[in-house]
Amino acid sequence: MQISKIQLLFTFVAAATASNASGFSLSNEVALGATSPFLHSTLPNYDQHGAVDISPGSILFGKRQPNLGGAIWSKIPSEFTDWQIHAKIQITGEKLGGEGMALWYSKDRATGPVMGGADLWTGLGILIDTYDDDGRGNNPAIMGILNNGTTTYNHAQDGEGQYFAGCLRNVRNLASPLTLRVTYVREMLRVELDDSTDGREFVNCFERVGIKLPAGYFFGVSGMTNSYPDGLELLDLKVYGGRPLSEDHNNSKPAVASNQDHRDISAQIEKALAGQLRQYMPKIISGHSEDAVRKVSSSHLSSLDDRIKSVGDTLSTMQQTIAGLAEQLHHNDQSHLGEELHHLGEELKARLDGLRGQTTLVQQEHATLRKAVEPTSTVSRYGSYLMFMALQVAILAGFLAVKQRMDKREKKWM
Ligand SMILES: [Ca+2]
Ligand SMILES: [Ca+2]
C-alpha cells in the first residue's frame, strides 16, 4: 500500500479529541514538532541511524537485504509522564521472514541487533519478532520488554523469559497496514493492534499495570532483517503526550498554568493601576495653580479618586472571577465547564457595561474639573491628567484583550 505522504508527528492532541476507546484522555500540551511529508531527506523530529531509507510513502528499515538494521529516534527526549504512540507499519516478505521491528521508549538512542535497536537499552521495548528462531511455533510475537541496561535480547529463544507480556499475532503480509497503539497512562501500559481496512478496530494485545517509566526518554522505531529479509516499513507515526485529565490535580499542568496566567495578568494590571495612580496624581495636583485646585480638589478629586478606586475594585473582582474559573477548570468535572464559561461571559459583559458607565462618569468629572480651573490655567496643565485617563483606558483594553485570548485558549482544551 502506498501512501502519498507520511506524517511523523511529535505533538499533542486537544483533550476534546484525545479521548480514545481505551477510556483515557490526554490533556493537550505545547507542540514540540510539526507534521511533515518526507522527501528523501531527513525527518524533522527524528534522527536516523543505520539502514534507513526514507521515501515519500514509507520509511524502510534494513533495505530488504539480509542482516541489516536501522532506527529512527526522536531528537529530543519526551517530557511527559503519559503518552500514546500510533505506529502504522507494514511487514512483507516470503513465506519465512524476519526478523522484526520494534517501538522504543528508551534512555538510549542506539542502533543494534534487537530489531534494529541496541542491546542493553534502558527503558521499554515493544518488540515485534516475526521469525520463530526456537521453532516453538510462537511467532510472530509482539512483546513488551523492560530493560535496565543489563539485558541482551535472547534471539535464540525469541525473548523467552524476558518479556513481561505479549501476544501472538500475524503481522506479515497483511491486506492492510497494521497500526499499533501503545498507551502509557498512570503506569499502565496497553498495546492494541488494528489491521482493519476501514478505520479504528483495535484489539487488545496486552495490558499491564505497574510499569514504571520516567519522563525524559526518547521515542524510537526500528527494524532489523535476518537471513530471510522482510520489507520492514513504517508508514505513519504519531506520538501524543500529556497528562491524564483526572482527580490528580498536581499533574494537571494546563489548568495550573492557566490559573497562574490569570493571576499574573491580574496582578500586573493592579500593579500598573497603582503605579499610575502614584505617578500621576501628584502631577495632576501640582499641574494646577494651588488656589484653583484647592477650589475643586476636595470634592471633585475625591470623587475622581473614588471612581478610580471603584474601577480598580471591579478589575479585582474580575480577576477573582477569572481565577475562580481557572480553579473550576482545575477541579470540576468537564461537564460543568461549558456552563461556567457561559456564566462568566454574561458576568464579564455586565461588568464591562459597568466599567463603561464609570469611565463616562470619570470623564464627566474631568470636564467639571477642567471647567472649574480653566480661568486660571491652560489646557496643557491637564496633559498629565489626560494621559492618566488614557492609560486607564489602555490598561482596561489590554486586560479585556488578554482575557478574550485566555478564554479562547481554555475553550480549546475543554
Ligand atoms: Ca526471533
Ligand atoms: Ca519462537
From TrEMBL:
<feature type="transmembrane region" description="Helical">
    <location>
        <begin position="382"/>
        <end position="402"/>
    </location>
</feature>
<dbReference type="InterPro" id="IPR013320">
    <property type="entry name" value="ConA-like_dom_sf"/>
</dbReference>
<keyword id="KW-1133">Transmembrane helix</keyword>
<feature type="signal peptide">
    <location>
        <begin position="1"/>
        <end position="18"/>
    </location>
</feature>
<dbReference type="Pfam" id="PF03388">
    <property type="entry name" value="Lectin_leg-like"/>
</dbReference>
<dbReference type="GO" id="GO:0006888">
    <property type="term" value="P:endoplasmic reticulum to Golgi vesicle-mediated transport"/>
</dbReference>
<keyword id="KW-0472">Membrane</keyword>
<dbReference type="InterPro" id="IPR005052">
    <property type="entry name" value="Lectin_leg"/>
</dbReference>
<feature type="domain" description="L-type lectin-like">
    <location>
        <begin position="18"/>
        <end position="242"/>
    </location>
</feature>
<dbReference type="GO" id="GO:0000139">
    <property type="term" value="C:Golgi membrane"/>
</dbReference>
<keyword id="KW-0812">Transmembrane</keyword>
<keyword id="KW-0732">Signal</keyword>
<dbReference type="InterPro" id="IPR051136">
    <property type="entry name" value="Intracellular_Lectin-GPT"/>
</dbReference>
<dbReference type="GO" id="GO:0005537">
    <property type="term" value="F:D-mannose binding"/>
</dbReference>
<protein>
    <recommendedName>
        <fullName>L-type lectin-like domain-containing protein</fullName>
    </recommendedName>
</protein>
<dbReference type="GO" id="GO:0005789">
    <property type="term" value="C:endoplasmic reticulum membrane"/>
</dbReference>
<dbReference type="GO" id="GO:0005793">
    <property type="term" value="C:endoplasmic reticulum-Golgi intermediate compartment"/>
</dbReference>
<dbReference type="GO" id="GO:0030134">
    <property type="term" value="C:COPII-coated ER to Golgi transport vesicle"/>
</dbReference>
